[in-house]
Design goal:
This protein is mainly beta. The protein contains one helix and 14 strands. This is Ferric-chelate reductase 1a.
């Protein structure tokens, strides 16, 4: 066979084989290509779940160290009489509230009383409209704790959402600290609403278990309890009230 003819036939065969291979490859790729759909973006839904209220427990554990005004204005909202009250080294009255999450707060209450001190939380500008009151009182030299409502200058015992109470009495100096769930009587929110704070004081009769009428030592305007860095003014005009017996 002529060498030129043989070379031509060889080129034709190679060209045919190349075309067949290319077509096979294209066919294979066309049948095997898979398109993956993008996964849907998840929708984030904000949780509106409110933590359950604290369970009432009036057991008082020993408070080892004196309470101070450390943290007031930075991590704790404080109202004092006088305003720079430090109960660790002076005879004064101090109420503090420290946010612990949601509508749970750690309350600090210190002052001088031979009977009781009460921390009042009011959801209006006035104290005494069925307002929740947390009372630390001197029962024959032992500090005890109870919840109450303050209505028309009368304290009536009630169960409150508070626990983890620690306290001590030294002479007339009374100090206690406790956790409490703060919520309005109309609706609970994920955050405690603004509230006015107050401190009341009075006598306690350990024989009858009765409390004298409250004298207001501290009274604030409604404030955001979760914001420690704000100016708090004491609007109380400290005057004695006529004796009233606490009902049970």
């Amino acid at each position: 066979m002529d060498s030129r003819l043989y070379f031509t036939i060889t080129l034709v065969v190679l060209a045919w084989l190349s075309a067949s291979t290319c077509n096979a490859t294209n066919h294979t790729n066309g049948t095997n290509v898979t398109t993956t759909a993008a996964a849907p973006t998840p929708t984030l839904i904000a949780s509106t779940t409110v933590a359950p209220a604290l369970v009432y427990n009036d057991t008082v554990s020993a408070l080892e160290a004196n309470l101070t005004n450390d943290g007031c204005g930075t991590v704790r909202l404080c109202a004092g009489q006088p305003s720079d009250c430090n109960p660790a080294n002076s005879a004064c009255t101090l109420l503090g509230a420290k946010a612990k999450g949601g509508n749970v707060f750690e309350f600090l209450l210190a002052g001088e009383s031979e009977g009781y001190l009460g921390a009042v939380v009011s959801f209006d500008a006035a104290l005494g409209g069925n307002d929740t009151t947390y009372i630390c009182f001197n029962d024959n030299g032992q500090i005890k704790f109870t919840g109450a409502s303050l209505e028309n200058n009368v304290l009536t015992r009630k169960t409150v959402n508070a626990n983890n109470v620690r306290g001590k009495i030294t002479g007339k100096k009374m100090q206690c600290i406790f956790d409490a769930t703060v919520d309005s009587s109309t609706a609970r929110a994920a955050r405690a609403p603004d509230a006015a704070l107050g401190v009341v004081s009075g006598t306690y009769n350990s024989s009858s278990g009765s409390f004298g009428a409250p004298t207001t030592l501290i009274k604030t305007d409604p404030i955001n309890l979760s914001n420690p860095n704000q100016t708090v003014t004491n609007n109380a005009a400290t005057t004695a009230s006529p004796d009233v017996t606490m009902t049970t």
